[in-house]
Every structure is written in structure tokens, then in C-alpha cells.
Design brief:
By secondary structure, this protein is mostly helical. Helices cover 74% and strands 0% of the residues. It is built from 3 helices and no strands. The radius of gyration is 37 Å and the shape is rod-shaped. The termini are far apart.
Length: 74
């Protein structure tokens, strides 16, 4: 068989719908497998602390410690 006789056979094989469909399925399956193998979870985003209650707690702590110090000094 020469190359001239082989080309029409190769063309008919490559244009066969079953061959095209199988090639598409295999490519999609390989892409999915590589996605699963390389998948990494994103790290959780740190939650911002509420800034409003923090100053009130500090003021109360300062007032309580300030009262205790003045009593000790007197």
C-alpha cells in the first residue's frame, strides 16, 4: 500500500462521527481528572473583628482600674 492509497482510508477514519465523539469524551475526561488532581481549596478569609465594642470595654477596664488605684493610694 502506498501513501496515496492510505490517505483516503485515514480521512474516512478521522471523519467518522464515532471517532470524533470518542476523542471529545476522552479529552473532557482527561481535563476533569487533571482538575480533580490539581484542586486546592481556597484558604478561608479572616473575619474582621468588630471595632465598636472594643473601645467601650477598654474604657470600662480603665475606669475600674483607675478607681482601684485611687483607693489604694489614699
Amino acid at each position: 500500500m502506498s501513501i496515496a492509497e492510505t490517505l483516503p482510508i485515514v480521512k474516512s477514519v478521522l471523519t467518522n462521527p464515532y471517532v470524533i465523539g470518542t476523542a471529545i469524551v476522552v479529552i473532557l475526561y482527561m481535563n476533569f481528572c487533571s482538575f480533580v488532581a490539581n484542586y486546592r481549596k481556597k484558604p478561608p478569609k479572616p473575619k474582621k473583628a468588630k471595632s465598636a465594642p472594643a473601645p467601650k470595654a477598654e474604657k470600662k477596664a480603665e475606669q475600674a482600674s483607675g478607681d482601684g488605684e485611687s483607693e489604694k493610694n489614699e
